Amino acid sequence: MSGVGEILKAVGAFGPFQKRLVLLTVLPCLSMAFHQFCQLFMVVDVPHHCNTSWILAIDPSLTEEEQLNLTLPRDADGEYDECSMYSPVDWNLSSIVAYGLNTTEKCRNGWVYPSTQPPSLLTEFDLVCDRKDLNGISQSFYMLGLFLGSMIFGPLSDRIGRRPVILISILIQGFFGVGIAFVPHFYVFMAFRCVVGASVSGITMTILSLATEWVGVSARPKAVLFSHCCFAIGQMILAGLSYGIRNWRLLEIAGSAPIFVVFFYIWVLPESARWLVTKGKIEEAKKVLQKAASVNKSTIPAELLEQLKPEKKTKSGNILDLFRKKHLRNLTLIMSCIWFADSLVYYGLSLNVTNFGLDIYLTQLAFGAVEIPARIGCIFALQWFGRKKTQGVFLLLSGLMCLIITGIPEDQLVVTTVLAIIGKFTATASFSTSYVYSAELFPTVVRQTGVGLCSMAARAAGILAPLIHLLDQYHHAIPIAIYGSAPVVGGLLCYLLPETRGVDLPDDTRAHSHSSAEICENANRSSENGCVKEKDGGQDNEFTKTTYF
């Protein structure tokens, strides 16, 4: 493809048109933050015990304390056991009092919860005792939805365009998000959460590509990471919203319904000019570029528009294209590992907000607040140190924080929480870097497919994160040790990647990032900036060398 980059420079790298486009990502990002972590506040642990109302048939005059004392065993701390009861008998009350009950069994007729407790997933669907693991499994089902969304919406966006995929994803998220508040069974809840997860994945990836393809090189990190900061603000809003609304169904409606406001996107959301050109839709591309220039109060030289022609008819990229050429295959495998490590440590910390011992709402507020400086600081780190160094250092630090936590005594709640917040900071910065880095590494014709494949790896880690946490029943340090080991390995893999700072986006798979970078390094080993420009069909293609620590 030729001419798109030059025309976008004439349009403006980050004018009013691009700023308006970035602002359109605010509400979807707030909504995504809600769906990502809302379940943490819908399963608040409360005291409970087996339903032993059978004894009231023998003597209805028993007080609650008398009933529990006769029908429930006590644990080692002298408290009533939450998950077992004495087996019912057909004796009279005097015999039960005289001889006592000795045979125990699991809860037969459900559980009893405090009458003052607002409805929650835990109390409504009995997510306690043998059913306790269903909460973690349902979180994995949501992550499975993110995985399926990556697999479906990534290639679909490369085929039908960025704009329609965003609109479809918003529609799905709105209807199924509100629908969750009316589900009658927990398994229906899990299915609806899976669908919402798929829509969240579609919005996340496609907004990334749309913003990246409209914004100039210098402002690209700012545009992408602005939406990530909105995601962090969404987490903070979730802490306040869940604190004020304790009924889980009302909380679901309050967090899901606002997405319907963005239906006006159908009139204002532009299509990617780069994507239009790759599909041979030159006239449509010219119209949207001229509209962008008009909003930015700039003009596009007529000769540039005339040069806007595809070099040849292009077909939609697919996953196989990422593995046919060595340089793309290496990029894909390494970036998939990095995304997997990013996701595992990020969700490993985020989904365990209830297990750090401090107030869940304050911890969530801190977790959301720390993401804002992490994402803003990431912008400067990307510009000062480049993509590769930033990615590697943040990954290594997030892993080290988790590994340090494994050596902290369980009663040191404040120390553990502080280390977790630092780990969340570095994991967030690393995740943000992955989005920018991946979008710059993959060519336009397979960019969404490549990012989608990396996102699939991240979602696979997201599916595993809640399940790995179930291992804490064997030892509390096992999950956090696993969360910490993966990013350390991922951080080391970063240094096999090329640097993309200041490089224009590649449009086709012939841009050999690795090989060109290596040529640049060999030819400019003593050069200060380490860059060369090569002529290719009259266009300057700038490559940045691969550097190593």
Structure write-up:
The chain is built from 22 helices and 6 strands. A two-stranded antiparallel ribbon has the order 1-4. It has a two-stranded antiparallel sheet with strand order 2-3. Strands 5-6 form a two-stranded antiparallel sheet. It is mainly alpha-helical. Residues 511-549 have low confidence and may be disordered. The two termini are 35 Å apart. It has one domain (4-44, 124-296, 314-496): Growth Hormone, Chain: A (Up-down Bundle). A hairpin with a 2-residue loop joins strand 5 and strand 6 (539-544).
In terms of per-residue confidence, which ranges show pLDDT below 50 for 5 or more consecutive residues?
511-549
Alpha carbon gap, first and last residue: 35 Å
Please give the CATH class: Mainly Alpha
Structural class: mainly alpha
> How many helices?
22
Mean pLDDT: 80
Could you provide a short overview of the structure?
This protein is mainly α and 549 residues long. The chain contains 22 helices and six strands.
Index terms:
elongated; 6 strands; disordered C terminus; two-stranded antiparallel ribbon; mainly alpha; single chain; Growth Hormone, Chain: A; 549 residues
Protein topology:
Layout: H1 4-11, H2 16-23, H3 26-37, E1 49-50, H4 64-71, E2 84-86, H5 93-99, E3 104-106, E4 111-112, H6 121-125, H7 133-160, H8 162-180, H9 186-214, H10 220-244, H11 248-256, H12 265-268, H13 273-278, H14 282-295, H15 302-306, H16 321-324, H17 326-350, H18 360-405, H19 413-441, H20 444-469, H21 477-493, H22 513-523, E5 531-536, E6 539-544
Antiparallel strand pairs: 1-4, 2-3, 5-6
